[in-house]
Design brief:
This protein has about 500 residues and is α/β, with parallel strands linked by helices. It is built from 14 helices and 19 strands. Helix 11 links the parallel strand 15 and strand 16.
Length: about 500
Amino acid sequence: MTTIVRQQDLIDSVADALQFISYYHPKDFIQAVHEAYLKEANPAAKDAMAQILINSRMCAEGKRPICQDTGIVTAFVNIGMDVKVEGDMSLDDMINEGVRRAYNHPDNVLRASILADPDGARKNTGDNTPAVIHYKVVPGNKIDIHVAAKGGGSEAKSKFAMLNPSDNVVEWVLNMVPQMGAGWCPPGMLGIGIGGTAEKAMLLAKEALLDPIDIHELREKGAENRAEELRLELMEKVNALGIGAQGLGGLTTVLDVKIKDYPTHAANKAIAIIPNCAATRHAHFTLDGSGPALQTPPNLDDWPEVTREASDSVKRINLDTITKDELVDLKPGDTVLLSGKLLTGRDAAHKRLVDMIEKGEELPVDFTNRFIYYVGPVDPVRDEVVGPAGPTTATRMDKFTRTVLEKTGLIGMVGKSERGPAAIEAIKDNKAVYLMAVGGAAYLVSKAIVGSKTLAFADLGMEAIYEFEVKDMPVTVAVDTTGESVHQTGPKVWAEKIRTQNIEG
């Protein structure tokens, strides 16, 4: 019997699902993070997970985005052969209309991050369209859809290789994960695709991330095939690397490892890794002709009550009075609370600043003894000063760091994850510091921002230079004035502790 699915029902279902996943974590993810939080032995990593859990509850209650990077939308659509879609739009256009409505919802505006002409003008499409859509035609009379919103920081850490048939998959993964750094915002999941062709392996890895976290059940029942054997082995060995939450070192780097495989050519062994970050966002619904398929809100009692532990060792920085001489007291791993006026700027702003410096032009902002925050915030709604405003990946600014530090008077930077060798060397040479904010705690961070105004480059939208007024914004010292990086020392220390003390990773 043929099922008729109305165009509007499909649009409404996509829009509802994308709004839903912007502020509700999957329950299985929250439970897994909480379990990792309870057993974590590294205070810095434990605090990072506390921020993620607190942020998750705040977002669920306030219906605001978990992360300021509200992602590129991917849809996996299984269309039953006995379904007729009633409408005047193509399926692509229907799904993209759902994306458009979700991201422009007035009560919860989501950040538009999609740029057309990716190697040219890179002009923002303004509504986060188009989505990346994958179709299958299957038996049946329903339309089955998974939607996911994937952050750029985690997507950027994807890895692919065409291995020789005799190459060891576990060795390759254990070699790749440290190279991914912390820009994918662990703890999260690894999706791994093995086999098929190059593009099939990548698709398998992305699809694998849609599955629920169930590594505990697999441990209890035992592996029944090669993919399950690999899951168990990689779960243990990846966590034994000691990378930890946000790359600070610790017991939990991954919450689960998902693997899908597919038959492949005798000469090939394609393999792909795609990580899912601490802002894991995906939803599933089925259209059967009875109307839109809307998401059911979770029970917030399932969210753990977590509080951050106050410490006597917390240091405070007054951004309005700090000088370079005071930076020497900051050591890697120190917890710091920032208060005062904090500049912002990321890729586009840094490129424009460096271009102006090279041309000898006067800069629009005085950076002397100032700190800059690498952020592209969500637009505010209602009475908000700013929308969710978590950090962006700092390594993207590495190539600009030396010029900016040496030519502007800037003394501090705040971002997400590690810095590369060139940036660390520039920080050391200029006796500056780099502080790390927690990726995946964007709404929590935004509550420390009590004022905001645009100072320069307003045409860049969320990439403009703002001046935030912050009060007790939580950060961790990641690179000190001597060039010591917690992202280098922390994982080494914890990998050794796990190895020698047999701590469960």
